[in-house]
Amino acid sequence: MILFLLACALLILGYVVYGAFVEKVFGISSGKTPAMKHPDGVDYIPFPTYKALLIQFLNIAGLGPVFGAILGAVYGPVCLLWIVFGCIFAGAVHDYLSGMLSLRHDGKSLIYLMEIYFGSKVKYIALFLLIAMLLLVGAIFAKSPAQMLGQLTNTSTWLWLMVVFGYYFVATLLPIDKLIGRFYPLFALCLLISSVCLIIALFMRDIPPFLNFELANLHPEGLPLFPLLFVTIACGAISGFHATQSPMISRCLKSEKYGRPVFYGAMIIEGVVALIWATLGICFYPTTTHLLTSIQSVDAGGTVSAIAKGLLGNIGGIITIASVVILAITTGDTCFRSARLTLADFFKYPQEKIKNRLILSLSVLAGGVFLSIVPVATIWRYFGWFNQTLAMVTLWLVTVYLHKNKKCYWISLIPAVFMTAVSATYIAYDKLFLNLPIQISYGIGCSIAFISFWGFLHLNYRKK
Q1: Which of 109, 323, 370, 397 supports an S-S bond with 194, CB 3.0-4.6 Å?
Q2: Which pTM does this prediction carry?
Q3: How far is CA 108 from CA 92, 97, 249, 327, 385, in A?
């Protein structure tokens, strides 16, 4: 209990101290935000700060801080260190700077920012990767809740999948204040309350949490801690997916001074949720071997269900599972909405008319339906690499911005180099990609990270 509370305290301290420093480095202005300059009644609508914060949290959370934390708990208590320090120094910095950069550029999507700071030559590749990742995430967050609802009600998964996609179509098409602005803050509170109830129930039981706390790799199959843990736990520590969601809320803020509570703060809250579920995974099962056996037999969703019912009983478990399902669905629809906005920005296609929104909504949803045929486990593995690679690219993007504006770019450069090593090592090691021995993968990952770091500093020196 003490370790868990200490980890939560560090996250809060990180928001207060390091978050204020990052905000000072970026430098907020008193100018009008996109929502105040040209509200359009569809995507640019001013929201109260509390509502923007809760929607941002719900949009970025998804199943990541739940499923990812459960999967990461297989490595043992060491996963908590990645959640805490990754969240403070990488994830929240990534979210704040990318969100504020979008705010400064009229609420434009990530593809627009890449074209500005990386050049027009990369925009087509970037568009493909961004849309592919959004559709992958949307497919995961359609199929996973459909499976959970099918198991809960003992009905067809495909029936629920069509229901979920039907809802996604409506939510992608309608103005942001009709469904998202009205109901999502309430859903976010439900997720937080259910997570807090679970951790309280855990510590009320006769379970000695972290009795044998070891800063070691406790994975039963001996899988390497680096880079796998840093890809498995993404949304609770750092996630490139968040950079695709932030422009949606950057179009709804009334002032730049609300950027830190909304962007940096939402990531800290997600870190707390990830800490809760990682702690549940570690403490509910006697060993990491028992946890891995559960995941392999009933997958991560079944493990979440078992923990919830084991701690809160059948009724409490059903409520918790329902909140997790809602969490997945309310992130899935914003994936497709972000895909629509990204395509609209790329093709300069106005979205005030419902006919224009209808064309793009049908296009992105068709891609999501197609990808939903692929097994969730396979999609999740590809998404893991896509996600962290996008985080790496976004960190380099904001580093270029800070450098060009003569600001302290080290706050994003260091995590950018680290995530470069993670992404490069993963693609060299994982079976889905190069499938090289881990030692060779380490060499490749570290070499690419060093070359990136040296190249950036060298170019910076030459320009000076």
Answers
A1: 323
A2: 0.91
A3: 20, 14, 11, 25, 25
What is the per-residue pLDDT across 215-259, written as a single tens digit (0 to 9) for each? Answer: 788 899 999 999 999 999 988 899 998 999 899 999 999 999 999
Domain annotation covers residue 23: yes
Task: Give CA 108 to chain center in angstroms.
Answer: 19
Provide the residue range defining the domain that includes 215.
Answer: 2-374
Letter for the amino acid at 137?
V
Asked if residues 47 and 253 have their Cβ atoms less than 8 Å apart, the reply is yes
pLDDT at 190 over 60: yes
Alpha-carbon gap, residue 57 to 54, rounded angstroms: 5
With beta carbons less than 8 A apart as the criterion, state whether 411 and 25 touch: yes
In this predicted structure, what is the pLDDT of residue 362?
92
**Angle, CA of 285, 290 and 296, to the nearest 5°:** 120
| Residue 66 within a domain | yes
Is residue 449 domain-resident?
no
d(CA 139, CA 408): 38
Distance CA 392, CA 398 (A): 10
Report yes or no on 268 lying in a domain.
yes
Query: What would the DSSP string read from start to end of 267-324?
Result: HHHHHHHHHHHHHHHHHHSSSHHHHHHHHHHHHHHHHHHHHHHHHHHHHHHHHHHHHH
Domain count, the chain: 1
